[in-house]
């Protein structure tokens, strides 16, 4: 039998079928969902959830037609974002994604932003967090009149697969919205009520990471995990001594820990099944910085031809000839940071001997990783943990050997890449196997992970 894992990413849908005995990929599908739409808000970044569902429904149907019904279905997807549903569980708003920044804008009267209001009430919040966006929408009168609940995109997909009318969020998805007590694993309803946020719109929190329901064919569907948690589960076979770096549209460095702890220095503590936590540092630009540079080169060359191969060749040639320290010093915080949304990137270290595209490209690659390394150093100082293993995931690392080379040099460890691609979808499948009782535990499911 094979378990299905589904990852609803910022730009793509990824599905895998994982053999329960060997961990081998039976099938894998990835497609761009092209779901971004314009809602008229300059700071908005929204998507059409129904378009995502219809495309996913077709892909699931095709896989079932080709390989038969899966044993179980696991879900994951972009964190922080949210949408509104009606009493039947139907989407009645766009998906306000994690990139949506309307909550960072001042109030209509010039007062504090929604993010600041939440922080003043004692709630963790940042631009793009679901409850910060919800607060901003309340202030602008934009919450749909028929709204009966809120969901992440992955939980909305779970509702559509099972016919559920009410969402149930795992603690990691709930925490990604802000306004969540990590220790109690519950929303901070008193603080949220004081800001006019209706507690009845908040979904139930499934602290057991259980089963949301079944498809019409009787296939159990697990409650959705955050993409960070799913990537950790799908990539890290030995969580006690491993640091995970992920380079995708954004970037993350993650260290699993067992106990709740108060953390600072721009780090986040996130719940992770079955009962532990993750220390997480995020680069909001991450792999997007490399894509921005590729677009810059296209414009400079006056061409629509992709430049990635040339970028990699020039950067590798430069580093081989002059060394990594001769590259430009690039701070890739072009999208700000969680702590400072207004932060900008920077470039320095330019001389007459390194004024070349290769030096710039190498500097961007290293800058993406240096942001994560700074956060990992803060994690080590906070937790006392020194990792024995470095695992990498995401297409940024898979497709860029220079990035892998820099990662090993910066972290001082050999880099392992999972043999399977689509790590988050793979992790969702492993989680579903444990939640549905197909294996004895999540640790047993993780024993199926193999590295290149």
Please specify the SSE layout and strand pairing.
Elements: E1 2-8, E2 12-19, E3 25-32, E4 36-37, E5 46-47, H1 49-67, E6 73-77, E7 83-85, E8 95-96, H2 114-120, H3 130-139, E9 149-151, H4 153-162, E10 168-169, H5 171-175, E11 180-181, E12 186-187, H6 189-194, E13 204-205, E14 211-214, E15 220-222, E16 225-226, H7 227-235, E17 242-247, E18 251-257, E19 268-272, E20 276-283, H8 287-301, H9 308-322, E21 329-331, E22 346-348, H10 357-383, E23 389-393, H11 395-398, H12 401-411, E24 415-416, H13 423-435, H14 442-446
Parallel strand pairs: 1-6, 6-16, 10-13, 17-23, 23-24
Antiparallel strand pairs: 1-2, 2-3, 4-5, 5-8, 7-9, 11-12, 14-15, 17-18, 18-20, 19-20, 21-22
């Amino acid at each position: 039998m094979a378990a299905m894992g589904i990852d609803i990413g910022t730009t793509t849908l990824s599905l895998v079928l994982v053999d329960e005995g060997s961990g081998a990929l039976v099938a894998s599908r990835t497609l761009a969902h092209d779901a971004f739409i314009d809602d008229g808000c300059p700071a908005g970044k929204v998507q059409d959830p129904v378009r995502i569902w219809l495309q996913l429904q077709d892909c699931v149907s095709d896989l079932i037609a080709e390989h038969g019904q899966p044993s179980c279905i696991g879900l994951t997807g972009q964190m922080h974002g949210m949408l509104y549903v009606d009493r039947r569980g139907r989407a009645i708003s766009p998906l306000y994604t994690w990139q949506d920044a309307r909550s960072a804008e001042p109030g209509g009267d010039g007062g504090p932003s929604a993010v600041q209001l939440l922080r003043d009430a004692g709630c963790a919040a940042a631009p793009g967090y679901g409850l910060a966006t919800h607060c901003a929408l309340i202030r602008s009168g934009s919450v749909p009149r028929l709204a009966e609940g809120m969901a992440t995109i992955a939980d909305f997909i779970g509702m559509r697969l099972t016919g559920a009318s009410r969402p149930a969020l795992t603690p990691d998805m709930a925490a990604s919205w802000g306004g969540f007590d990590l220790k109690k694993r519950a929303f901070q309803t008193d603080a949220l009520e004081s800001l006019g946020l209706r507690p009845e719109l908040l979904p139930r929190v499934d602290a057991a990471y259980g089963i949301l329901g079944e498809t019409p064919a009787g296939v159990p569907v697990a409650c959705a995990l955050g993409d960070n948690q799913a990537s950790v589960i799908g990539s890290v076979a030995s969580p006690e001594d491993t640091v995970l770096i992920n380079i995708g549209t954004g970037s993350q460095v993650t260290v699993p820990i067992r106990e709740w702890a108060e953390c600072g220095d721009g780090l986040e503590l996130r719940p992770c099944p079955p009962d532990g936590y993750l220390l997480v540092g995020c680069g909001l630009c991450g792999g997007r910085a490399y894509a921005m540079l590729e677009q810059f080169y296209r414009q400079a060359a006056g061409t629509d031809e992709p430049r990635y191969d040339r970028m990699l060749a020039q950067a590798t040639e430069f580093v081989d000839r002059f060394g990594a320290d001769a590259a430009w010093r690039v701070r890739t915080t072009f999208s700000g940071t969680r702590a400072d949304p207004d932060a900008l990137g920077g470039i320095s270290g330019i001389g007459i001997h390194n004024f070349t595209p290769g030096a710039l490209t190498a500097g961007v690659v290293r800058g993406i990783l240096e942001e994560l390394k700074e956060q990992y150093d803060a994690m080590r100082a906070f937790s006392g943990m020194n990792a024995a293993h470095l695992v990498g995931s995401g297409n940024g690392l898979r497709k860029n050997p220079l990035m892998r080379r820099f990662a090993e040099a910066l972290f001082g460890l050999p880099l392992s890449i999972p043999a399977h691609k689509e790590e988050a979808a793979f992790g969702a499948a492993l989680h579903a196997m444990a939640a549905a009782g197909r294996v004895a535990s999540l640790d047993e499911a993780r024993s199926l992970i193999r590295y290149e």
